[in-house]
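Hello Y.,

Per our agreement to keep a running log of every chain we model this quarter, I'm adding this entry. I've kept the format consistent with earlier entries: sequence first, then predicted structure.
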Amino acid sequence: KLFKAADSKLSAEFDEQEIEHLMIVGLWCAHPDPNLRPSIRQVIHVLNFEAPLPVIPSKMPVPKYLSLSGYTPTSSQPFSYGTTVSESSRNQSSSYS
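Predicted structure for the entry above:
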């Protein structure tokens, strides 16, 4: 199945091991949890056949996002990336199912 995803313009003239590595690394890089994505160093090692392929789950988790409903920033508490929001929001968590 994996090789069916290869570009048909390649006319099946490709190294199957390279395609397998490219496809799996692409899926790994697209993981919905940024903490589980590889570093560029890991990617290079895998693509150069210097490290084993990662085991990709057969079903990727679906991201769930934290709701900020009811949060209103004040002038003394501007909302920006990395700031803590309200106490009630802090008790909520984002998770994957």
